[in-house]
């Protein structure tokens, strides 16, 4: 049997953790269950990730990067308001195409908020900074730094709220209509800076 590098195993464990959390919830995401889902020995999981918090943070890092890749496709050069709304649309589209990841991210964040508030704060800060960078890339210097930060935080709050509502009602047509309402609100917020 060929040896698999630690980095590849790391990704296997991250993907398995997402699946386990989406199916069983964070409270039932045991390291045994995660190792089994990754088809790896439990000892390998503990070798690659020394603590469960370390594993969960690696899941967060991967979850940050995936939806933000969708933001690279938001065209730069339109108005700041249009760009912000388009970013919101792209994020919702990405999450609806990956419901398992959306569910795992939400579950994991609330679990972390209860069990490790410092980590939850760090995770929110990293997410805000990533959205801020993408907004800045798409709209350039159209917004001053303080307003750019406010806009990125509002965008995150809208995405989170829409995804949580969609998880509850499971109606894609309703999500699309609610997303357009949120996009209009975001556009008004940015346009009236």
Write a concise keyword list for the protein shown above:
193 residues; mainly alpha; Tetracycline Repressor, domain 2; 9 helices; elongated; HTH-type_TetR-like_transc_reg; HTH_TetR; transcription regulation
What name does CATH use for the topology of the largest domain? Tetracycline Repressor, domain 2
Give the CA-CA distance, first to last residue.
Answer: 60 Å
Morphology call: elongated
The structural domain count equals 2
Strand content: under 5%
* Count of DSSP strands: 0
> Can you tell me the CATH class of the largest domain?
Mainly Alpha
What class, by secondary structure content?
Answer: mainly alpha
Uncertain segments of ≥5 residues (pLDDT<50)? Answer: none
Query: What is the overall pLDDT average?
Result: 88
Order of helices and strands: HHHHHHHHH
Query: How would you classify the quaternary structure?
Result: single chain
Percent helix: over 70%
| Largest sheet geometry | none
CATH architecture of the largest domain: Orthogonal Bundle
Radius of gyration: 18 Å
The number of helical elements comes to 9
């Amino acid at each position: 049997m060929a040896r698999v590098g630690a980095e590849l195993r790391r990704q296997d464990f991250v993907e398995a953790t997402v699946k386990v959390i989406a199916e069983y919830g964070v409270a039932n995401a045991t390291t045994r269950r995660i190792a089994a889902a990754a088809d790896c020995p439990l000892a390998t999981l503990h070798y690659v990730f020394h603590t469960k918090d370390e594993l969960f943070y690696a899941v967060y890092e991967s979850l940050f990067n995936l939806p933000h890749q969708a933001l690279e496709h938001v065209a730069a050069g339109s108005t700041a308001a249009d760009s912000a709304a388009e970013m919101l649309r792209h994020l919702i589209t990405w999450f609806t195409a990956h419901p398992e990841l959306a569910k795992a991210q939400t579950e994991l964040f609330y679990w972390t908020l209860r069990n490790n508030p410092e980590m939850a704060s760090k995770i929110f800060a990293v997410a805000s900074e990533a959205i801020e960078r993408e907004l800045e890339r798409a709209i350039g210097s159209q917004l001053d730094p303080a307003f750019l930060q406010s806009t990125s935080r509002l965008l995150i709050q809208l995405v989170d709220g829409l995804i949580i509502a969609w998880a509850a009602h499971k109606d894609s047509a309703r999500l699309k209509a609610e997303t357009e309402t949120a996009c209009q609100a975001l556009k008004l917020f940015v346009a009236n800076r």
